[in-house]
Specification:
globular; 179 residues
Length: 179
């Protein structure tokens, strides 16, 4: 269910600053841990934010797209990206929230180091498995969600399975082994 405004829907139309922060966190996740499929999904999902650069980025080779995402990450350290596509990822054309200083969002992410990458199966938003507040065990697989709306909208592969249980818990708690 890939929708043009899926990120905004999942963020419950919160303040534009939260939407921008989510964009930058997802960019760091994908640039750090994503493969070519994840990078292309990120570009398609954030097409409105990236403006006319979306089509161009989707036509880049896998290697050139990887370089653009890697180059965008230098903004996290306070440097200017060297390539135009890296710059456009780091400072997008149409963010819903404009600040006079584009680097203000990156300052909050200086210490952000995700350890993995998961994709919300409902909205295709990228989430960090270590900090995802909503998850569910679906058979032998853990599924991570960005918000309670996506958790509620997920249809398990085997909806009759007794071991499928919706969870919202503190990361310090252990997962139950049976429902």
């Amino acid at each position: 269910m890939l929708r043009e405004d899926s990120n905004i829907m999942c963020l419950d139309r919160k303040s534009p600053g939260v939407i921008c922060d989510s964009y930058f966190r997802q960019l760091v996740l994908v640039a750090s841990h994503g493969d070519d499929w994840a990078r292309r999904l990120f570009v398609r999902t954030n097409g409105r934010v990236l403006g006319g650069y979306t089509g161009y980025m989707l036509h880049l080779s896998a290697e050139h797209l990887r370089v653009a995402f890697s180059d965008a990450l230098v903004a996290q350290r306070g440097s200017w990206p060297e390539t135009l596509m890296g710059y456009r990822l780091a400072v997008p054309v149409r963010l819903p929230y404009r600040r006079s200083d584009a680097w203000a969002f990156w300052e909050g992410l200086v210490d952000y180091r995700p350890t993995g990458l998961a994709v919300d199966p409902v909205c295709d938003m990228f989430v960090d498995p270590d900090t995802a507040p909503y998850l569910m065990r679906d058979g032998a697989r853990m599924v991570y969600f960005c918000c309670p709306r996506c958790l509620a909208g997920y249809v398990p592969a085997d909806p009759d399975a007794a071991q499928v249980r919706r969870l919202h818990f503190n990361q310090d708690q252990e997962l139950p082994t049976s429902a």
